[in-house]
């Protein structure tokens, strides 16, 4: 069936509209599949498991934090008068490694020091890749095949520890080192 010259603009408009609607629908579906944003859940509340006030100075509080972390098997990676960074590794499975990075910041307050803490749990999995190669000599007689395997720890997850009991246990131990 042959289209008349009169029908061609209508068909072009219909095709453009169909393409536009298809594009918009595709974009809407892709947006729906995206990772949801986490910042709307940030409360910025006065009540938080991430800090505690002490009567001692910030230097004393950070020193006690170092002792508390060392007593639990953490490696101190950086220690300054008001900051401590420590790390501890775990291997819950042969192919899984979990690291806790623990940060402490001690700030002066009107009646002593406020200690702020944050711990991030990062999970790594062992990924194995293998390859093969061979060496041939011209004339056909010798082929020497060999294989190569490479192992690498790949980060698969990372998240701030939000468990209030985790931080309570830390602050309880810190309190014992401060002599309260």
For the record, the CATH architecture of the domain at 45-123 and 157-178 stands as 2-Layer Sandwich
Overall mean pLDDT stands at: 84
Any idea what the radius of gyration is?
Answer: 30 Å
* Sequence stretches where pLDDT stays below 50 over 5 or more residues: none
Top-tier CATH class of the domain at 45-123 and 157-178: Alpha Beta
Main sheet characteristics? 6 strands, antiparallel
* SSE ordering: HEHEEEEEH
Q: Which strand-content bin applies to the residues? A: 35-45%
Can you give a write-up of this model?
The chain has a domain of 101 residues: 2-Layer Sandwich (Alpha-D-Glucose-1,6-Bisphosphate, Chain A, domain 4). The relative contact order is 0.14. Strands 1, 2, 3, 4, 5 and 6 form a six-stranded antiparallel beta sheet that branches. The model has no long low-confidence stretch (mean pLDDT 84). The protein is an alpha+beta fold. A hairpin with a 2-residue loop joins strand 3 and strand 4. The protein is 31% helix and 43% strand. The protein contains three helices and six strands. Helix 2 crosses helix 3. The N and C termini lie far apart (94 Å).
In a few lines, what is going on in this structure?
The chain has 180 residues and is of the alpha+beta class. It contains three helices and six strands, in the order αβαβββββα.
Please outline the helices and strands:
Elements: H1 8-33, E1 51-54, H2 58-71, E2 75-79, E3 83-93, E4 96-109, E5 112-136, E6 143-160, H3 164-178
Antiparallel strand pairs: 1-5, 2-3, 3-4, 4-5, 5-6
Helix pairs in contact: 2-3
């Amino acid at each position: 069936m042959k289209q008349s010259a009169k029908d061609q603009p209508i068909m072009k408009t219909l095709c453009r509209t169909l393409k536009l609607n298809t594009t918009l629908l595709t974009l809407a579906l892709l947006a729906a599949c995206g990772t949801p944003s986490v910042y709307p859940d940030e409360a910025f509340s006065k009540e938080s498991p991430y800090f505690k006030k002490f009567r001692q100075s910030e230097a004393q509080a950070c020193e006690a934090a170092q002792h508390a972390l060392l007593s639990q098997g953490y490696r101190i990676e950086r220690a300054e008068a008001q900051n401590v960074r420590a790390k501890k590794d775990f291997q819950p499975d042969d192919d899984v490694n979990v690291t806790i990075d623990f940060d402490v910041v001690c700030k002066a307050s009107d009646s002593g020091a406020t200690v702020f803490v944050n711990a991030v749990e990062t999970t790594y999995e062992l990924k194995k890749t293998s390859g093969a190669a061979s060496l041939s000599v011209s004339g056909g007689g010798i082929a020497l095949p060999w294989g190569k395997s490479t192992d690498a720890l790949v980060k698969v997850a990372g998240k701030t520890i939000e468990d209030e009991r985790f931080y309570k246990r830390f602050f309880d131990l810190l309190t014992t080192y401060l002599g309260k």
